[in-house]
Amino acid sequence: MEYPREITVIQATTILISTIIGVGLLALPLFAVRSADTGAPLLTLFGIGIASTGLGLITFLGIRHPRKSIILYGEDILGKWLSRVPNLVIILFFAILTGLTSREFGAVVITAILKQTPLEVTVIVMLILAALSTRNDMNVFAYIHNFYVPFILAPALIIVALSLKNANSLYLLPILGNEPGSYLIGGLTIAALFQGSFIFTMIIPFMRHPRKAVKASIWGMVIAGGLYLLIVIATVAVFGPGEITNLLWPTLELARTTSIPGNLLQRLDIVFLSVWVIAVFTTLFSSYMFTVHSISQMAGLRDHKMLSFFILPIVFIIAMIPQNILHLYDVIEIFGRLGLILTIGYPMLLVSVDLVKKKVKKSGSIKA
After folding, report:
1. How far is the C-alpha of 316 from the C-alpha of 222, rounded, in Å?
2. What's the CA gap between 167 and 254, in Å, rounded?
3. Secondary structure (H, E, C), the chain
4. What is the CB-side half-sphere exposure of residue 130 using CA atoms within 13 A?
5. Which residues pair with 7 in a beta bridge?
6. How far is CA 131 from CA 57, 190, 343, in A?
7. Residue 242: CB partners within 8 Å, gap ≥ 6?
8. Separation between Cα atoms, residue 155 and residue 162, nearest integer Å
9. To the nearest whole percent, how much of the chain has pLDDT over 90?
């Protein structure tokens, strides 16, 4: 299938940034502190490194197969029938990820903003908005992400910068933390928050210059990962690891305790929640688009638009399965770590098989 090459490097970068920065922003410091205590910033950096490995693998594959997404070049590398199982699992994974993201969004909204609104209403509204948006082509998809990125990054960075006036550097010591034995599990949990970057395999075939995907992936991970790292540093430095373990959404509490000099705004949590809603939408939009686009490719359809509302009831049912917010976060942590087998392990398998096939083919042609 030949795709229109319309996406620029800047657009590809902004898609990565706005997809990675999403619903996990609120609970990120809690996940990091639970595993590494004062070593939360270092653990976050470790998680970013794991996530970067996965992004590097799919970027490498995308450059080697610039006209196809992972659904199609997986068939070329493993064979059409052998690749069906991992392709179906990937699609199911992102459908579940979309459902869990919308459920977490709904839980935060009814807890912090619209306390009298039923959970189902907030979830279905966000899913309908994402479904409507996915009926556009990939060029509009890129423009939407490109438009929203400044509204996500600028306020978040301002809040982090202003919060540092209340920071206590002693809360960040020792740097390695008091429980270094939990680094692996904690690092995998943090890396799972970056799994949205897997949609880059869908973006590369639409890029004007696929070989520049490396540049886009580096900048995307540096900016999104840098913001996550700054938020963890600021949150731990302000509250301390002991207090963070008692907070469900430490980043939201950080915004509540931050004010603009001159008392123009004494609390920035409303501003932050507005930014967070935008970030959730762009993340949900990406995972929903990846799901319907991948299904259309597997089915050999020319267009994914007819599938936009077809999967909506399925995703909504998935979103309603967790019993409460605590159960939801337990599911997200376990499901996220297992998902790394797909988002990192599967590309690693494809790279290995692809390189071996190329080597065998090259040695065969030399003998001939």
Report:
1. 33
2. 11
3. CCCCCCECHHHHHHHHHHHHCCHHHCCHHHHHHHHHHHHHHHHHHHHHHHHHHHHHHHHHHHHHCCCCCHHHHHHHHHCCCCCHHHHHHHHHHHHHHHHHHHHHHHHHHHHHCCCCCCHHHHHHHHHHHHHHHCCCCHHHHHHHHHHHHHHHHHHHHHHHHHHHHHCCHHHHCCCCCCCHHHHHHHHHHHHHCCHHHHHHHHHHHHECCHHHHHHHHHHHHHHHHHHHHHHHHHHHHHHCHHHHCCCCCHHHHHHHCCCCCCCCCCCCHHHHHHHHHHHHHHHHHHHHHHHHHHHHHHHCCCCCHHHCCCCHHHHHHHHCCCCCHHHHHHHHHHHHHHHHHHHHHHHHHHHHHHHHHHHHHHHHHHHC
4. 34
5. 207
6. 29, 28, 23
7. none
8. 11
9. 73
| 149 close to 14: Cβ distance less than 8 angstroms | yes
- 146-150, 170-174, 212-216: segment of lowest average pLDDT: 170-174
Contacts of 154 (CB under 8 A, 6+ apart): none
Report whether pLDDT(284) > 80: yes
Q: What is the pLDDT of residue 4?
A: 66
Q: How confident is the model at residue 15 (pLDDT cuts 50, 70, 90)?
A: very high
The two tokens of residue 353 are: 């098989």
CA distance 94 to 324: 21
Q: What is the pLDDT of residue 341?
A: 93
pLDDT at 24: 86
Q: What is the pLDDT of residues 75-114, one digit of tens each?
A: 999 998 999 999 999 999 999 999 999 999 999 999 888 8
Residue 360's pLDDT band, with cuts at 50, 70 and 90, is confident
84-112 vs 70-78: helix crossing angle, rounded to 10:
150
